[in-house]
Amino acid sequence: MKRPNICLKVTPLLHKAFAAIQADAVKGSKFHAHFVRLDRNDRELLQYAPVGLLKQSPQPSLPIRFTYSLATYMEYIGKHKSEFAGHFLWEKSLKHILKGCEVVVEEKELVFKNPAQEARKQMLYNTAAEREYKRLVKDVDEEQVRTRKAVSATGSTVKNGMLAVHMMIGLFAGFFGGYLLARSVVREEKNRLIGGVIGLIFVFLLEMFLFLFNACKAEVRERDRVQRNRAAALAATAKKKKSN
């Protein structure tokens, strides 16, 4: 038998109750130290409930499971009444908070976002992908890997050296080109040298722009490569689980 999706119509009083609790969930708030003593499930249901500070428009009904966590927190407040003076729920009963809430049965189960739960899922996915990646590369010859790293490092050194030479040649060409251009326009040697300096600065700025552009492009390619590897590892993990 399918379990009924029992919910409550949200009243202004219920909004205020959850708003007060969600304020307790904020680090540094007056009652935060008490709020974090609740079980994780209760904390997340209260903190991310679609009412109070997170109310929606149009306002959906509130599944009954949220009121169980509300009752747990109110019971805790009752046991530590002296420490909750001034709290909205102080000396209030659950019956009082739920007064006027109409009971409704929804056809479909209402699902709301839980950022903390989504973060845990993503962490599990990343861990599984990392584990699968390590499994795939565990049989790779370490000596071959070291050789490839050494070749890569040598290639980077040569590339950086050629880049420096390229920049020096470019700066010289910029100065010489600016000097020749100024020579065809002005007669004084001082102005020709100024023209050469302007050409040098222009080439320098152009080379810096090209360098940054290529660096950003390489970073994007590397990030895409890592994402493809992770996606492949996740797909392999899912396929393996499905086959089992």
Element layout with pairings:
Elements lengths: L4 E4 L3 H13 L7 H4 L4 H8 L14 E2 L1 H15 L14 H4 L5 E4 L8 H23 L4 H42 L5 H55 L1
Antiparallel strand pairs: 1-2, 1-3
Structure report:
The protein has 244 residues and is mostly helical. The chain has 2 domains: 5-113; 122-243, no CATH class. The protein is 67% helix and 4% strand. It is built from 8 helices and 3 strands; from the N terminus they run βαααβααβααα. The protein has helices at residues 12-24, 32-35, 40-47, 65-79, 94-97, 115-137, 142-183, 189-243; strands at 5-8, 62-63, 103-106. The protein has a 3-stranded antiparallel sheet with strand order 2-1-3. The longest helix has 55 residues, at 189-243. The model has no long low-confidence stretch (mean pLDDT 82).
Q: Would you kindly provide a brief summary of this structure?
A:
The protein is mostly helical and 244 residues long. It is built from eight helices and three strands; from the N terminus they run E-H-H-H-E-H-H-E-H-H-H. A three-stranded antiparallel β-sheet has the order 2-1-3.
| Strand arrangement across the biggest beta sheet | 2-1-3
How much helix, percentage-wise, in residues? Answer: 55-70%
pLDDT < 50 stretches: none
Mean pLDDT: 82
Strand content: under 5%
Shape: elongated
Please state the CA-atom Rg, rounded to the nearest Å. Answer: 33 Å
Please report the distance between the alpha carbons of the first and last residues: 30 Å
The overall number of domains is 2
Number of helices: 8
Largest sheet: 3 strands, antiparallel
Order of helices and strands: EHHHEHHEHHH
Task: Briefly note the structural class of the backbone.
Answer: mainly alpha
Quantity of strands, as a count: 3
